[in-house]
């Protein structure tokens, strides 16, 4: 019974603060929408793929050689993002950003147990992202022969700019959904906090909690209009009885 009463009280608190909750949710959604659509700069992504392995004349690879190539993939990933490669990319593309900033734009990943390396670049311009990805692959293909004596780097797929390419971030709908949930949680939490901080006495139950004694009785609230109507009815009734007695 206590659990039912507790849930009912929680529902009444939320109902009383429903305007506050809705206001906070709407404010969070509107702010998220404005920031996502009008303030944050769209970021585009473009990717290229390369295959790295040692060339052999007989075109046959032993299991040991394949495992060695797979273990070297992590080394290749580091080299691709190193100044030895990015400094040349920056120079050939006449990029204004520093090598460190260029490094932050590039993500290098390889599939598990695969010698295929994916080079992804994020930039405010889709054309610039594709150009950086392709140039990074080309420079790595040339320079890795001097760095690690790797003579068989193949570019499997070049980065291209798609028609009406969509940005990878921000994602307005996702941001709005998150803002909706966060706003709802904030509104509910604030409602309970305000109710907890409200020490005013509003009903007989509050009086019992404050004084710690059982309530023996209460004075009913009398509406002024209803009282006047009741008095008029009683007066009319008395007058009717008086007329009947005189007759």
Automatic annotation (TrEMBL):
It is found in: Cell membrane. InterPro entries: Bact_polysacc_biosynth/exp, GNVR, LPS_length_determ_N. The lineage of its organism: Bacteria, Bacillati, Bacillota, Bacilli, Bacillales. Keywords: Cell membrane, Membrane, Transmembrane, Transmembrane helix. The chain crosses the membrane at residues 18-40, 173-194. This is Capsular biosynthesis protein. It comes from Cytobacillus horneckiae. Residues 3-93 form the Polysaccharide chain length determinant N-terminal domain. It comes from the Bacteria.
């Amino acid at each position: 019974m206590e659990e039912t009463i507790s849930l009912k009280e929680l529902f009444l608190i939320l109902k009383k603060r429903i305007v506050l909750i809705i206001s906070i949710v709407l404010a969070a959604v509107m702010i998220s929408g404005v920031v996502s659509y009008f303030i944050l700069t769209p970021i585009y992504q473009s990717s290229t793929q390369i295959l790295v392995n040692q060339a052999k004349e007989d075109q046959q690879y032993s299991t040991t050689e394949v495992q060695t190539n797979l273990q070297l993939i992590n080394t290749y990933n580091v080299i691709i993002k190193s100044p030895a490669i990015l400094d040349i990319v920056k120079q050939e593309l006449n990029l204004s950003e520093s090598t460190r900033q260029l490094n932050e734009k590039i993500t290098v990943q390889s599939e598990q147990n695969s010698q295929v390396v994916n080079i992804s670049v994020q930039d405010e311009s889709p054309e610039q992202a594709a150009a950086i990805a392709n140039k990074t692959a080309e420079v790595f293909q040339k320079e890795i022969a001097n760095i690690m004596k790797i003579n068989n780097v193949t570019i499997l797929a070049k980065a291209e700019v798609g028609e009406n390419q969509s940005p990878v971030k921000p994602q307005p709908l996702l941001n709005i959904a998150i803002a909706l949930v966060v706003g709802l949680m904030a509104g509910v939490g604030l409602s309970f906090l305000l109710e907890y901080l409200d020490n005013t006495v509003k009903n007989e139950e509050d009086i019992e909690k404050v004084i710690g004694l059982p309530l023996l009785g209460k004075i009913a609230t009398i509406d002024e209009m209803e009282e006047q109507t009741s008095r008029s009815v009683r007066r009319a009734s008395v007058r009717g009885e008086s007329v009947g007695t005189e007759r």
